[in-house]
Amino acid sequence: MQCPLLYRFRVIDKLPEKPSEAATRGTLVHAVLERLFDSPAGDRTAPRAKALIPGQWDRLLESKPELTELFDGDVEGERLAGWLGEAEQLVERWFSLEDPTRLEPAERELFVETELASGLRLRGVIDRIDVAPTGEVRIVDYKTGKAPRPEYAEGALFQMKFYALVIWRLKNVVPRRLQLVYLGSGDVLTYDPVPADLERVERKLLALWDAIRLATETGEWRPRPTKLCGWCDHRAVCPEFGGTPPVYPLSVRPAESEEGVQGRMEPVRAEAGQPVALEGP
């Protein structure tokens, strides 16, 4: 939804991408908040959470040694220390938004997967699921960035509605609440979905998959320039920046017509969250 050509580079060409400090910090903070719930409720304090950061960073480096590239040339360790300090600030801010001593998550970092009647498979990883004693389900997602402006809130909620749709199809239960916790700005965005909302999401996903299948068959993956292009790792091979994409690795069929393909390839205009995935039958 962000950019069809970027989807091709990532999913079909599998072009490598450099790790970023922001994304890696988000992974680290998520790991700390997940691990904190291993402790008894009374031990879930801000100092305890911050104390988990060095160990979780070591674990992250062990699983992804390439992350050491983030701090190449940082001989004195000043950049790394500042980066870890920013992670501490995000973790500490969480305690002003939620009280972990009063939470007992039903699930953490839960992988979910379901197949729609159409054969389209949906899957993703949910940060946290809370279940009230009365059975209501709340889906919680942590964001280490800042909350979007109101006009972009719907795009931010798309990821959460995706998760809600998967839970609904899996468990036949519509989650009572969707909650985005923005640690970068100290905001909490909530939304209470109804079946009609999730049915609309399902229709949007089916339309999106139709566009993906058509592009896969024809090789017509078109860039959609936005201000996010400045952070893209693939500008060197993007025609919007004078580059040439690599040779398409899949066989293609002739496009029906330029006009027909263009009409059917219009991307769904919403901001995708992460990490969600679509997989066809």
List keywords for this structure.
alpha+beta; 39% helix; globular; 8 helices
Strands, helices and their partners?
Blueprint: H1 4-12, H2 21-36, H3 46-51, H4 53-63, H5 78-94, E1 107-115, E2 121-131, E3 137-143, H6 153-171, E4 177-182, E5 187-191, H7 195-218, H8 258-264, E6 276-279
Parallel strand pairs: 3-4
Antiparallel strand pairs: 1-2, 2-3, 2-6, 4-5
Structure description:
With 281 residues, the protein is of the alpha+beta class. The chain is 39% helix and 15% strand. Strands 1, 2, 3, 4, 5 and 6 form a 6-stranded mixed beta sheet that branches. Helix 2 packs across helix 4, helix 2 (21-36) crosses helix 5 and helix 6 (153-171) crosses helix 7 (195-218). The longest helix is centred in the C-terminal third of the chain and has 24 residues, at 195-218. The model is unreliable at 257-276 (pLDDT under 50).
